[in-house]
Amino acid sequence: MLRIAVVAVALLVVLGGLLWGFQRRFIYLPDDDPVPPAAERIEGARDLTLRTEDGLELGAWFVPPRGDDRELAVLVANGNAGNRASRAPTATALADEGFSVLLFDYRGYGRNPGSPSEEGLARDARAARATLEGELGFAPERTIYFGESIGTGVVTRLAVDHPPAGLVLRSPFTDLAHAGRHHYPFIPLDLVLWDRFPIAEQVRGMAVPTTVIYGDSDTIIPPGESRRVAEAAGALFEEVVVSGADHNDPEMFDGPRVVSAVARLGDEIAPD
């Protein structure tokens, strides 16, 4: 029994060491394949370049609205995998609802320079917001932040310093350590993680109308994590549960439950 315990402890130490040294490779899974021109994936879309405060140039797509223009923009912060091309269905569906949409890739994604981290992604989001307001003309009161998975941490932090008109959190978690315990229950993540994304703590004192969306069959972010974010939100507008949906199911990207939830928030903040 003693030998088994020693082996178990040794394995945990080794696993903890690997997680400490390579943790960002577990957290961030960038797709660095070439991204096609925006107009090849979405009719009428155009390419933009974002410039971060630490000197990086990042690729982005601007998608204009279709049909009745709400004169509202949605800034989309992706999850931890893929690149902006894989969010084309989300942008197209939101544009069909009359929103203008800004898609962008974080540093290290979509052939962008740099390496992802919590602080790096925060800088990237600030560059996206600055472009949306300065170059594209969307004031904060005409802007919704939409975060997906780890992007919920990105837009929540952005909202603390630069409040938008509305906030949509799709599959959020209370903080990264809590979400990680679902996958690494024997690792003291509170002690080893460099990146935190304290979403529940940040939304608690927020006055921005907030919609929380999650699938009740999510195997990546436990539904209870998202539910606790909704409970913590200082200005919860709506909690939307997509029955039977897992984290990366297509309906969580451009499904009617997700898109209509954004539309309802848009109606609330900018009624006709």
CATH architecture: 3-Layer(aba) Sandwich
* Principal-axis shape: globular
Element order: H for helix, E for strand: HEHEEEEHEHEHEHHHEHEHH
- For this structure, the CATH topology is Rossmann fold
Largest sheet: 8 strands, mixed
Structural class: alpha/beta
Query: In what range is the share of β-strand residues?
Result: 15-25%
Number of domains: 1
Number of helices: 11
Radius of gyration: 19 Å
Q: What's the arrangement of strands in the largest beta sheet? A: 2-3-6-4-7-8-9-10
Give the C-level CATH assignment: Alpha Beta
The low-confidence parts are: none
As a percent range, the share of helical residues equals: 40-55%
CATH superfamily grouping: Alpha/Beta hydrolase fold, catalytic domain
Mean pLDDT, to the nearest integer, reads 90
Strand elements, count: 10
Distance between the termini: 71 Å
Question: How would you sum up this structure, described in words?
Answer:
There is one protein chain. The chain is of the alpha/beta class and 272 residues long. The protein has a single domain, classed as Rossmann fold. Helix content is 41%, strand content 19%. It has an 8-stranded mixed β-sheet with strand order 2-3-6-4-7-8-9-10, with helices on both faces. A two-stranded parallel sheet has the order 1-5. A hairpin with a 5-residue loop joins β2 (46-51) and β3 (57-63). α4 (118-134) packs across α5 (150-161). The model has no long low-confidence stretch (mean pLDDT 90). InterPro entries: AB_hydrolase_fold, Hydrolase_4. It comes from Halostreptopolyspora alba.
